[in-house]
Automatic annotation (TrEMBL):
Keyword vocabulary terms for this entry: Metal-binding
Stretches of the chain forming a coiled coil according to its record: none
InterPro entries: Calcineurin-like_PHP_lpxH, Metallo-depent_PP-like, Phosphodiesterase_MJ0936/Vps29
One MF annotation (Gene Ontology) recorded for this entry: hydrolase activity
Top-level EC class as recorded in UniProt: hydrolase
Family annotation (PANTHER family): VACUOLAR SORTING PROTEIN VPS29
Similarity comment text for this entry: Belongs to the metallophosphoesterase superfamily. YfcE family.
Domain Calcineurin-like phosphoesterase: start-end pairs: 1-149
Highest taxon above the source species: Bacteria
Name of the protein this chain belongs to: Phosphoesterase
Pfam families recorded: Metallophos_2
EC number(s) on file: 3.1.4.-
Length: 166
């Protein structure tokens, strides 16, 4: 099962649409995971229409229309991989410990908010992934997103993709 992992798209504030590379990945992905800060309801509806399956949450920049349609935390099992998705996890210091305590029943936690790509494993085995942002790099050198594969209760081939020059 192929996963596309994105967050912090901020459409239409930071971009009018997703970059072409991300749109192409939507077509290839079995599941699109979005960790919040959509900003615009139309971007949710568009991604939902083009995705084979969408798992998403709302972020701190998402208003009432998005909060009515999306949970704060999503939990799903994909090919045996227990996945949790949330927008915010707090400061970087102590993140692994906090998240392992809060999401100890998951194998993988996808989060956003910081726009900083992140891939670590907490004590106990929880893997934490932040794909950065494909539209708002802030102080990062590149716009980014992630892909991964889920099979046999294992997440593999996790890859951070850079979009275009900085």
């Amino acid at each position: 099962m192929r996963l596309l992992i994105i967050s912090d798209t901020h459409i239409p504030r930071r971009a009018r649409e997703l970059p072409a590379a991300v749109r192409d990945e939507v077509e290839r992905a079995d599941v699109v995971v979005h960790a919040g800060d959509w900003v615009d309801l139309a971007s949710l509806e568009d991604l939902r229409a083009r995705s084979h399956r969408l798992v998403g949450v709302y972020g701190n920049n998402d208003g009432p229309e998005l909060r009515e349609r999306l949970p704060e935390i999503a939990r799903v099992t994909l090919e045996g991989v227990r996945l949790a998705v949330v927008h915010e996890t707090g400061q970087a210091k102590g993140r692994e410990k906090r998240c392992a305590e809060r999401f100890g029943d998951a194998d993988v936690l996808v989060f956003g908010h910081s726009h900083i790509p992140w891939d670590t494993t907490a004590p106990g085995g929880l893997r934490l992934l932040n794909p950065g942002s494909p539209t708002d790099r802030r102080r990062q050198p590149h716009h980014t997103y992630m892909t991964a594969a889920a099979a046999d209760a294992r997440l593999s081939d996790v890859r951070l993709h850079r979009i275009g020059p900085a």
